[in-house]
C-alpha cells in the first residue's frame, strides 16, 4: 500500500471522528433505547446514527471500502479481501445508557486481512487513541511507549467475573494484584495498551469489539490471542485476551487450569 495514502486516510478519519464532538451530544439529548436479544443487549439512536453517518462518509469519499459493523447485516461483506472497516459505533452501550460515561467508538481498517489503522475514541474524555501500521500508537497525537513488562502478581486484571467459574475466579484473584472492569472492551483494552492493566480478557466478544486491538498489540509488543493461546480470526472473534507480555502465559495457565474457566 502507498504510505502517503495511509497517512492521508488516517488524517481524514481522525477529522471525521472529531465531528462526533458535535453529533453525540445532540443524539444523547434525544436518546431512545431498545433491546436486541435480551434486556441487557441495548441499542440506541446514538449507535445507529453514528454508524449510518460513517457509512455515508465511506460512500462519499471511499466507495471501494466496505463496512463490517455491529448495527447492520454483514452477510455480503468479504472482510478478508480488499479494503474493510470494522466498527463498533458505541462500545459500552450499557454504560452510555446508565451512566453517560465509559464508552467509546471503535474503528479499524484492514487491507486484505492485514490491520493498517486503528482507532479507539474515548469520547466522554475526548481522548483519541490511534495506531498506524509500522508507525506506532498514539494518544491525542503523542506517541505511546510500549508498557513495561509486568508479571501477573503485579498486574491488575480486567474481565467479567460473572462469566468465569468460581474456582478459576479465586485463582485469578489470588495470582494477580487486583481486578477491575470498566464494561467497555475498547476502554478496558486501552488500560492494557497504556500499561495501567496487565491484561483484559473477554469470553464472548464480537469482531467489532476487538478489531482495533490487533494493530495496537502489534505496534506496542503486546500479546493478543484466544484464551487457549491460538491466533484469532478477526472476522469471527471469540474468547480473547490482550495482555502485557509479562503476564500473558500466566493468565492463560490459570484460565485453562482444572478443566478451563467456563462455568459448568
From TrEMBL:
Keywords for the protein's UniProt record, in alphabetical order: Magnesium, Metal-binding
Matching PANTHER family: INOSITOL MONOPHOSPHATASE (PTHR20854), INOSITOL-1-MONOPHOSPHATASE-RELATED (PTHR20854:SF4)
Keyword Ribosomal protein in record: no
A GO biological-process term: signal transduction
Positions that bind Mg(2+) 2: 90
Database matches in CDD domains: IMPase_like
Protein name (record): Inositol monophosphatase family protein
Lineage: Bacteria, Bacillati, Bacillota, Bacilli, Bacillales
Keyword Ribosomal protein: no
Single Gene Ontology MF annotation: inositol monophosphate 1-phosphatase activity
Binding positions (Mg(2+) 1): 70, 88, 91, 209
Cofactor requirement: Mg(2+)
Amino acid at each position: 500500500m502507498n504510505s502517503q495514502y495511509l497517512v492521508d486516510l488516517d488524517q481524514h478519519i481522525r477529522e471525521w471522528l472529531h465531528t462526533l464532538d458535535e453529533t453525540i451530544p445532540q443524539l444523547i439529548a434525544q436518546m431512545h433505547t431498545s433491546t436486541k436479544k435480551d434486556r441487557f443487549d441495548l441499542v440506541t439512536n446514538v449507535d445507529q446514527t453514528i454508524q449510518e453517518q460513517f457509512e455515508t462518509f465511506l460512500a462519499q469519499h471511499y466507495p471501494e471500502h466496505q463496512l463490517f459493523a455491529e448495527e447492520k447485516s454483514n452477510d455480503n461483506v468479504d472482510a478478508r479481501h480488499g479494503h474493510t472497516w470494522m466498527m463498533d459505533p458505541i462500545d459500552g452501550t450499557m454504560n452510555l445508557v446508565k451512566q453517560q460515561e465509559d464508552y467509546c467508538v471503535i474503528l479499524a481498517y484492514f487491507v486484505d486481512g492485514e490491520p493498517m489503522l486503528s482507532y479507539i475514541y474515548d469520547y466522554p474524555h475526548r481522548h483519541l487513541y490511534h495506531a498506524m501500521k509500522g508507525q506506532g500508537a498514539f494518544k491525542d497525537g503523542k506517541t505511546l511507549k510500549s508498557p513495561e513488562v509486568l508479571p501477573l502478581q503485579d498486574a491488575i486484571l480486567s474481565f467479567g467475573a460473572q462469566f468465569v467459574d468460581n474456582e478459576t475466579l479465586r485463582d485469578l484473584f489470588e495470582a494477580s494484584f487486583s481486578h477491575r472492569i470498566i464494561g467497555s472492551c475498547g476502554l478496558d483494552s486501552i488500560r492494557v495498551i497504556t500499561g495501567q492493566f496487565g491484561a483484559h480478557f473477554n469470553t464472548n466478544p464480537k469482531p467489532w469489539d476487538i478489531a482495533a486491538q490487533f494493530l495496537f498489540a502489534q505496534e506496542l509488543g503486546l500479546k493478543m490471542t484466544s484464551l487457549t493461546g491460538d491466533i484469532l480470526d478477526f472476522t469471527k472473534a471469540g474468547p480473547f485476551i490482550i495482555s502485557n507480555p509479562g503476564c500473558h502465559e500466566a493468565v492463560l495457565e490459570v484460565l485453562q487450569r482444572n478443566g478451563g474457566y467456563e462455568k459448568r
